[in-house]
Design a protein that fits this description.
103 residues, mainly alpha, DNA polymerase, domain 1
Length: 103
Amino acid sequence: MEKLRDLQGLGPKSEAMLIDAGIDSVAMLKEKGAIRSFIQVKKHGAINPSLNLLYALVGALEGTHWLHIVKRRKVDLIMQLEGYEELEALFESYEEPLDLNND
């Protein structure tokens, strides 16, 4: 069975952060994707991860080292991350579902 640390660009520390956040397999990482996995680590980990972890997750899923993620891709990832976090915060702020049919 392939371990998280076996993926290119991930090591024991990255693997530990992922496992602590409940992402304990390569299959789960692939299912969640880099951005959702990064956010889960941010929420559940004892250590606030840097964006380098996000880049490492993308690189691991794409089979390349995180240093090879081009600058333009990094900007796109940051924008996706911010958008995802804004949406998540918006949905968490509602205690009850919105009634869109109420005039």
